[in-house]
Amino acid sequence: MTDLTRMTATDLAGLVASGETSAVEVTRAHLDRIAAVDDRVHAFLHVDTEGALAAARAVDERRAAGEQLGPLAGVPVAVKDVLTTKGVPTTVGSKILEGWRPPYDATIVQRLQAAGTVMLGKTNMDEFAMGSSTEYSAYGPTHNPWDTDRIPGGSGGGSAAALAAYEAPLAIGSDTGGSIRQPGAVTGTVGAKPTYGGTSRYGLVAFSSSLDTPGPCARTVLDAALLHQVIGGHDPRDSTSIPQPVPDVVAAAKLGATGDLTGVKLGIVREFTGEGAEPGVMAAFRESVDTLAKLGAEIVEVSCPHFRYALPAYYLIAPSECSSNLARFDGVRFGLRVGDDGNRSLEEVMSLTREAGFGAEVKRRIMVGTYALSSGYYDAYYGQAQKVRTLITRDFTTAFEQVDALISPTTPFVAFPIGARTADPYQMYLADLFTIPTNLYGGPGISVPCGLSEGLPVGLQVMAPTMADDRMYRVAAALESVVGTFTPPAL
Amino acid sequence: MTTTLPAYDEVVARYEPVIGLETHVELGTNTKMFCGCPTDFGGEPNTRVCPVCLGLPGSLPVANKAAIEATIRIGLALNCSIAQWCRFARKNYFYPDMPKDFQISQYDEPLCSDGYLDVEVNGELVRIGIERVHLEEDTGKTLHVGGATGRIHGATESLVDYNRAGIPLVEIVTKPVPGTGALAPEVAKAYVTELRDVLRSLGVSDVRMEEGSLRCDVNTSLNLPGEEWGTRTETKNVNSLRSVERAVRSEILRQASVLDAGGRITQETRHFHEDTGDTTPGRSKETATDYRYFPEPDLVPLAPDTAWVAELKAALPELPRLHRRRLQEQWGLSDLDMQSVLNAGAVELIEATVAAGTTPAAARKWWLGELSRRANETGVELADIGATPAQVAELQGLIDAGKLNDKLARTVLEGVVDGEGSPTEIMTNRGLEVVSDTGALTAAVDEAIAANPAIADKIRSGKVAAAGALVGAVMKATRGQADAKTLRDLILERLGVQG
């Protein structure tokens, strides 16, 4: 019998729709797989067995009743623990929310339900999405299915690892500086960051409001596009949501899959091809560029001179916003409360709660952000970073006057060993060197597997203009049509 | 401290006060500033809340357009410039009644700025500069229980009610107001009164100081003539118009006594006490919290359409001060008479009564006469007396139609005030209508003639004036429900005498 866990979401949906298999069978296969391998991967923080089976049964009943099912009905999805799920624990990878069961569903979760997908559970992540390795999860690291001694990327390492370990065919991530794309790259899976405002943030526990973008993760470009189509689109509950329909990413992925890129002009970001990236990563990238050229794409080199300031600007803007967004975790209304013994003052209880509830990286960023927003320092730090952001946006718009999309390696290095970069925050921050500019600009970016380096996956990033998400899907699908998908060794 | 306070007149002869006022107004929108929860006052604690106004993780604000419109209208009524582009900002500080531990407010980009409001003090116009008008969200309310005072000291538990959290709040800040001298307290009161009337005329808030929908902080400083302005204090908990005046006066006296003793004024927040009329120090502003303001990234910038703003401006109601002047002319009142109408709080009541069809004189007679008397006796505001302008107009209509006389009307009005129903209902239910049924009256007249043959003879012999005695007898018999003139004519007719 075919292993249901090895199939694409597209194929699974087809089998469920035709009645060749049931949503319950598909769900059970994935729950069994999780039970078999997740002790070694630790992709999940919570597996919602009952909820998943109930959702699957509902899909089967709808089909039996002759209802028309959506393109992903009956397909299991793993959801990053950054999205609120009604009645289902939501921790954001932090001790401060341990045991919290939100009273409401995120918009994306509602859309997943409406589409008939089956939520398997909540995936592991760096605490509050701050990190590039999932090592900063308060609940222990996730292991890369390609080599369980290595990191699966972060912050959405759980979602990417769940895909690579065949625990789920689809997953949801959130990308603030690369948290969808970089884990995609180092696990050999596809991760797309939609245009900022193209997917709703309502119910996404905020890290950095002006950068956070939820998006799809999958093992194929078409699956990612289908998921993107389901979760995307305007949400009146999110003021920053764009009131326009989602670009037709599914059609674009199908067009790309024909392997024809004639008339497409791609720009290699000069600043991202010098030093900084591992030779093996650069080799795989160069080879992919040749492939894209063979598919008919015109390749040019473009300069984005301000990208070199992206990392420092990001590490002022994101911490500043996080210092404010994370203030509400004070022990008063939800989550952890420490030291409330009737003798301590409110400030002491708040302080003890935050001291005990937040991990070191979260505290570091809260402190940096608090400092950067302080009176007398605001202009020099937060204000200056906003100006850099404007310059980076200008680099993008100038580049997109010359080319349809930009390409670069997704991340400078392949999956590194667990523990290798935790001692020096800057070494960790470098993992997002190539992904951060897109977040500052607000455009879409996708990471697609493009090869291996020393037996580990390498990702190629395609960046497109805002609300031109379809372009990156076309290019990614074209590359995928040649290089194929990548299967890790058996766990 | 047992310092004797100097005399007010003597103080303001030596020192020049500078005042400034910060007013917070809760808007009367149907829903909260950033979510769909209702805004009605009161309600069981924590029943008018949702993930957004509770600041639950993941929730996001969406700005209320009605609140933005109301703020722009306030700005326009206060002659402000309306920003073509501005942003909300986060004001960060930890406090349990602040669900997100930051308040969404506005900082260096207020929606409205640089306007003025003219107020009348002792017949003279004083122009109060308006620094800014901005929009923000209200906080929840903390209740300290278990202690004697209801304050945090001595309390065993603190409870938070988030029903109020997220209600749209408009902050109106004046520029410093120098040069009012001894009149400073009155100017402050006149400003808040006028502002309240403007807000009421705009229909943007119920402006009830006692329910906290209009809250006022008063800044006061003193300086010697020719010298720089002094250090200011900010007095909070000023919960009535009278308190505004008292708070300024009290702060002027207190600061003068400190300065006279060679002391320095500390920049601080002070708390006004309604019972004693004093202020006591609150938290010091010298170690002010750094609010770390930054533009709210969860909301898009506000860019009010110029044409829309122009429409709102064109549709503004007449300013209360100009409106009052126009009414005074229409009603033909002297300044003194108008002042007594104002003092009685009867302007809008009379206006509404007139609008319902009563003459200004009659409307004024009822509101300033019988109803004001009742209001004084029972210690309620005239507006809350229990009679509405429509009812007063109805009452006067019954008089004009000859169904009630003046005396009966007073009885009916008492019934209205006591909640017995409308004037017509009370008249009918209590049988107070003037008897105009000639059959019934004729019977009563004939009875009176039969009972008073001597008087009847006098009248028959031409002493028509004697008819008054028979009128009185019939009135007595009909409990005053006859119209005196009709009655007199009928008596003469029955006796065959020409009137």
Automatic annotation (TrEMBL), chain A:
Q: Its quaternary structure? A: Heterotrimer of A, B and C subunits.
Where does the signal peptide begin and end?
Answer: none
The protein's annotated catalytic reaction(s) are: L-glutamyl-tRNA(Gln) + L-glutamine + ATP + H2O = L-glutaminyl-tRNA(Gln) + L-glutamate + ADP + phosphate + H(+)
Which Enzyme Commission numbers does its entry carry? 6.3.5.7
Q: Which UniProt keywords apply?
A: ATP-binding, Ligase, Nucleotide-binding, Protein biosynthesis
Name the Gene Ontology molecular function terms of this record. Answer: glutaminyl-tRNA synthase (glutamine-hydrolyzing) activity
The entry's family comment says: Belongs to the amidase family. GatA subfamily.
Under which main EC class is this enzyme filed?
ligase
Task: State what protein this is by name.
Answer: Glutamyl-tRNA(Gln) amidotransferase subunit A
Q: State the function annotated in the UniProt record.
A: Allows the formation of correctly charged Gln-tRNA(Gln) through the transamidation of misacylated Glu-tRNA(Gln) in organisms which lack glutaminyl-tRNA synthetase. The reaction takes place in the presence of glutamine and ATP through an activated gamma-phospho-Glu-tRNA(Gln).
A Pfam family annotated for this UniProt entry: Amidase
Q: Which PANTHER family match?
A: GLUTAMYL-TRNA(GLN) AMIDOTRANSFERASE SUBUNIT A, TRANSAMIDASE
Which catalytic residues are annotated? Answer: 80, 155, 179
| Domain called Amidase: residue spans | 25-471
Which HAMAP family did the record assign?
A: GatA
TrEMBL record, chain B:
| Keyword set, alphabetical order | ATP-binding, Ligase, Nucleotide-binding, Protein biosynthesis
Q: Where is the Asn/Gln amidotransferase domain?
A: 348-495
Per the entry, what this protein does is: Allows the formation of correctly charged Asn-tRNA(Asn) or Gln-tRNA(Gln) through the transamidation of misacylated Asp-tRNA(Asn) or Glu-tRNA(Gln) in organisms which lack either or both of asparaginyl-tRNA or glutaminyl-tRNA synthetases. The reaction takes place in the presence of glutamine and ATP through an activated phospho-Asp-tRNA(Asn) or phospho-Glu-tRNA(Gln).
The primary gene name is gatB
Which reaction equation describes what this protein catalyses? L-aspartyl-tRNA(Asn) + L-glutamine + ATP + H2O = L-asparaginyl-tRNA(Asn) + L-glutamate + ADP + phosphate + 2 H(+); L-glutamyl-tRNA(Gln) + L-glutamine + ATP + H2O = L-glutaminyl-tRNA(Gln) + L-glutamate + ADP + phosphate + H(+)
Q: Provide the protein name.
A: Aspartyl/glutamyl-tRNA(Asn/Gln) amidotransferase subunit B
Species assigned in the record = Micromonospora antibiotica
Read off the PROSITE patterns from this record. Answer: GATB
Assembly description: Heterotrimer of A, B and C subunits.
Is Repeat set as a keyword in this record? no
